[in-house]
Amino acid sequence: MKQSMAAIARKFISPSMRYELRNLSSKGRDLLGRACFWRWEVARFRLQQQSPYEILYIGRRQQREMAKLLIGGKAQAAVAEEVQPGQSAAAGHVVVVSEMPSTGALSVPHYLSAVVPLGRPLEEITARYDGELRRSIRKNRPHYQMRQTLDDGEIGMADQTLLRPYASARQGIHAAQFPTDEVFRLAKGVGRLDLITLDGEVVACHLGCEITRGGKRYWSTLRFGYCEAVFSDAKRLREVNSITTFMALEWALEHGYDYYDIGLCVARPDDGLLKWKRRRGGDIDGLNNHAYLFVRLPRAGVARFLWDTPLFAVEGNKLTLHLGVPDGPSDEEVASRYHEMVFGGLHKIYLYGAKGAGEQFLQTLHDRYATLQSPPTMERIVSG
Question: Are 83 and 230 in contact (CB under 8 A)?
């Protein structure tokens, strides 16, 4: 009976509706998890010893590390110091990060996807790559092959020697490992597992699945996996990683998908992985993110805080970027600071600073985004 009901559901519920139902279910689980107030804590910490800003965190203990990661990144999150009694920040320099939404707080997503629009020639897509990346792909692509596997032994090998070790090496304590049975379910049913070989030797794998949203088909990377000989060698990893991503893009284009989703990364404008995916044509997208933290900016020193910690936020279902231009840095320093923060998929950019600050940079931003099909609007916010 269960199977027949599932078959009926598949017949009468469109793929887009199934995506929306899964999305709604995930958001509901997140909301129920946040509603467990008895698991909440109040913690105070600084991400840098000399920082004038104190982070006041209110939420579940297990989400405190995510708060540190979103605000400070891996390096600063690892050395964050609890604020001791008597060491509180100066008035107005407290940043409230909570799991509870409040008026005026920014809704900061945990993760964002990097999505490449398809439906155009491969040469047009790779035109956004820098020259060095294009040369590397032309040189190395002929040596690599990709093939799907349904073999239990190969799926188990990929799980144990490629997917898990790479995730641990890359993310450490933040690694979110796929359960083994889920890897098998995806590889043999709703998704696809491909092995990547270099001159016949397996060096990587790609685990992906199809998502349909708003009538558009996405080929979505769930995980890349690499053998230790690859991920322990930074130069070799750059090469194999670029080729693996490029082959997944080729496959999605050849099979008529509308978009290729390179996968999730932490929703930080300064995140190195997000910048890596941006250089491969990925536009930011809220696809597959279901969780948020709510950040109330400090009453004083907002421009300096956002200079140190730019933030993405969501308004409705649209993505925004919040940047600070404090007193002190020259126009050239400001342009350099935000050089790699040109993201397709943005609805709006907010620029915080004193009256008249960043005028030249605002024009620079307009110029940098002018090449995009749908450039974001920009708004100045006068602040200290």
Answer: no
